[in-house]
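Hey, I was hoping to borrow your eyes for a little while. I've been puzzling over a protein and I'd love to understand its fold better. The fold is given in discrete form, as structure tokens running alongside the sequence. I'd be grateful if you could look everything over and explain what you see. No rush at all, and the record is pasted right below.
>
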Amino acid sequence: MSHTYPLHHSSEVDVPVEPAALFAKLDDHTRLARHMEKPSLMTAGASMRIATDAQRGQAVGSVIRLTGQVLGLRLALEEVVTERVPPIRKTWETRGEPRLLVIGGYRMGFTRTPREGGSHLVVFIDYRLPEHGMAHGLGKLFGKAYAAWCTRRMTVDASRGAAMPRGAAP
């Protein structure tokens, strides 16, 4: 799966969580992509169903499928885990051409580095716009905002429930 992804976005956060615990939380793909299961403005009210193979997205080669519908259009994609190095990083990539509205194929993942009192987390997406039709136009208009929303949601979800270190501002 050696694709070219000309566009990039990343979001970062310091999380006061022990490295192995943070990786375990992020390694659960149904939890990591939970924001896709809830209708929102960024998904035009759509919600996606997440299904994994027997490896649950927690091994290289494992497959994750997302399906849904928006404005009468069927959305679908398959992702394959391409790298998994606990508790440091994980990467997954779309397989085939996804049926999405504002982004095309992508590679996504996270890296975690230690910091005093926890971890520094970077969630990234390298992507391309859809190649044809209405989706290409929508991608030009909304692709960048969608990529930012997606990585930001994952960093917010990763830090949710984490206790703030003593003396830190909320």
Notes: The chain is about 25% helix and 40% strand.
